[in-house]
Give the backbone structure.
Amino acid sequence: MKFPAQIKKIFENGSSFLLTSHENPDSDALGSMLALANLLESLGKSVFLYNASATPSFLEFLPGSEKVRTTLTDTPENGFDALVVLDCPVISRAGADFERYAGGADSEVVIIDHHTEMEGGGGEVKWVETSASATGVLVYEIFKFFGAEFTQQSATCVFAAISGDTGSFRFSNSTAQCFAIASEMVSRGADPQRISSAVYENQSTGKMDLLSRVLGSLKTDKTGKIAWVCVDREMFEATGTTNEDTEGMVDYPMSLKGVEIAMFFRETSAHGQSPAWKGSIRSRGDIDVCAVAAKFGGGGHKNAAGFNFDGNFDGAIGKILGEIKLA
């Protein structure tokens, strides 16, 4: 991996930066953002942290998460030298407010990501490494390039970023590099037990209730190789839960014996609106689910992708299964 000279120049010459990531941030998005903020501040830069969504409660343990704003109304009048978008292939995924702000700002826009590039955008300076297991790996490389020391805070964020996108080092993208970086982060103060406990052992009774209902929706195709679950608006209302509480639920159908492709669907429409859904899809081995997601305007990685769709769920699932069988 080679750190692009153009981004190096932006980081060296700029004095003020806005950092953001995709909406509904996960461990990699938020961990990468906070670690990079730590690095830039160590270089004497001013950093403004923003995300369109509130920080999920299970990620509030990350050092610096309390500094992330959810509004752009209090940005400096003179703006920023650069807007840096992490773990996000196009700026539209960072939210409509940020997309409008970026469109009217006289700032460089930098994208640092590991997802397959998507159509859209233009004019951004990009560093996209699809071979990287997590955006946290790229942030680690930036630290190394600048010769910056990892504090306990930045080490915790990088460890959480890589752990999150590798499924706690269970997924096929858990490379030797990931384990080497994780080991180094532990030596710098990251606490794997504390991180794991915060993410996986901090569930509410509402989420447990929601999980029982989601598991009750489990279905498979005739081959038993494709499985899916879903959560609709009524489930959220009955359990008093939110989108945040669905984190990791796609892993349950994937854990079924014989399953090669797993999907999780979440209703995103409100009362009175036409049905709308968000889908997450996972696969094993050489099955490319990113290509399937792309058919519905989504994207991601070969073995993990996402997409949105409108309309009746039962009708849509037939189309999705059809695309999977053609892939």
Summary: The two ends are 30 Å apart (CA to CA). Residues 5-200 form a domain with the inorganic pyrophosphatase (n-terminal core) fold (CATH 3.90.1640.10).
